[in-house]
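Q: How would the C-alpha cells look for this protein?
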Amino acid sequence: MVYKQIEEYFSKHPEKSIVEFGRDVIYAEQYFKYQNIMIRELEKLGVSKQSCIALKVRQGHLCFLLSSALDKLGAVVMMMDAGMSDYEFEKYLNEYHPAAVISEVEEPENENYVHRTELFLDLICDTRLHVYETRTADGWEKYGQDDKLKGSFIFFTSGSTKLPKAVFRTKENVRVDGQNNIDYFHITENDKALCAVSFSHVYGFGSGSIPYLMSGASVKFLNPFCTIRTLMKELYSGEYTCFIGLPIHYRLLAEFADKPINIRLALCAGSAVSNNILDEIPKKLGFHINNMYGMSEMGGITTLYDSITDENMYSLGHTLGEVSVKLGDVAQEDEKQPLYEIWVKSKSLAPGYFSGEDKEFHNLPLVDGWFNTNDLGYMEKDGSVCVKCRKEHMINVSGKKVNPGEIESAMKEFPGLTDVAVLKKKDDTYGEIPTAYYTAETELDQVEMKRFLAERLPNYKMPKELHQIKEFPRSATGKILRNKIVIE
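A: Here is the predicted structure in C-alpha cell form.
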C-alpha cells in the first residue's frame, strides 16, 4: 500500500529523481526498471508471499529498492542492522529464522546457510548482492497467509536491556505513520530530504524517507558514519529543505559548522541531544533541532516543529497526526515534577511481536486500545510531552525512586566529560545504587567530579561508583546499549 502510493506519484513523473546516493541519482523511470529486475531475480529464488526475507544492507538506496521489490512480491521484509557483529547476526538467525538473507557483502560461513546465490544487477550501479538461503525458515508460511500480517515489515527494538523484539509493522501501520509525518511537517513534492539515518531503522524508514517518497519528494541517502566535511558539503549545497540526522551529526555541526544552514526542518531521534547543543544550534546555524519521540512499535509519536521556540526546545512536543498520548500511574512522586507512565494509541501501532523463544506471534499488550510505552515523563499545560527515562531504568535507593537521567544531566555539565550512562546496581545496604559510566578525552579527576555532583544532587542520588571507559556500545541510531557496557 505504501509503495503503491509512491509508485502512483512517480509513474506520472518519470523524469524526477526518487533517490540519490553519492554522486548517483535514480530517476523514477529507472526505479521501475530496477524494481522489475529485482522482482524477476527474486522470483527465480522462490521468494513469495510465504517468505520472510532479511535485508542486511547498509546502503539506503539498495535497501529501499529491495524492500520495494519484496513488498510487490508480498513477502515479509525483516530489516536488520548491517553494522551488527557476526556474533550478533548469528544470534538473530538462530532466534528469528528468516527464509533468506540478502546482503551487499559476502558474509562469513554460517551453519544456518544451505545455499548462496549472487545477484548481478549490472544496471544498478554495478551492484552485486549475496542471497543466503537458510535451513531454519520454519514457521513463516502462516504469516504470509494471514491477511493482517502478510507483506509486513519487521523492525527490531533497540535491545538496550535484552534481546531485541521483532516487531511486525503492517502496510497500514507504515502508511498511517507516514501520513502522520506528512501532515505534521507539511511535506510536499517540492521538498528534498537528506537522510543520514539507516533505512533499516524505524526512524530512518518511517520519518527519514517513506513520508517524503509518499509525497513525491526526493531523498538522498547519506552514510550515517560520513565525515563532518561530507555532511557540511551536502547541507551547505542549498539543495535540501529537510535533514534527518542523529545526535552525533548535530554535535559535530555545532562544533565545526560556522555559518547558517538554510533548511526548514531538522529532525533528531535515537537518543538524547544535550541542552548545550539544543541551545547552540539555533544561535550559530539558524535552525532549531526538532527532537522526535517514537518507538519501533508505532513509529513517530511526538515532536515540535510549528510550535518550537527558544523557550520550549527541550520538550518533545505534541502528538503527530492521529496519535494520542495519555498519562498513566505515577512512577515517581518525591520530585517537584512527578513522573507518570506514558500510554499511546494510534492506527500506526503494530499488531504484535514475533518471539524467537517460542517461534510464535504475540499480540501487542493493549488496554482498551492503549499501549504502555514503559517510558516515564509528564505533560505540560499546552499538551506537549516530556519523557525522562525508561521505567526499568529507575533506581530504587532505600525506597526512594531515582531517575538516572537527572544524574546524567548533572554529570554532563562536568568539564571534559563527553557522555555518560547511569545504571542501577544491587546493593546489600540500599537495595540498589546508582553507578555511573562515562567517557572523556582525558583522564578526569573523580574526587573533583564527586565534589561537583555533591553541589547539584542530594546524597541518595549521588552515584556510588564512577567508571571511566573508552567508549559506549551503541545501536544504529547512537543509543547507548546499557546491557553491553563492559568495564575494562
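The first helix runs from residue 2 to 10.

The longest strand covers residues 417-427.

Upvote if useful.
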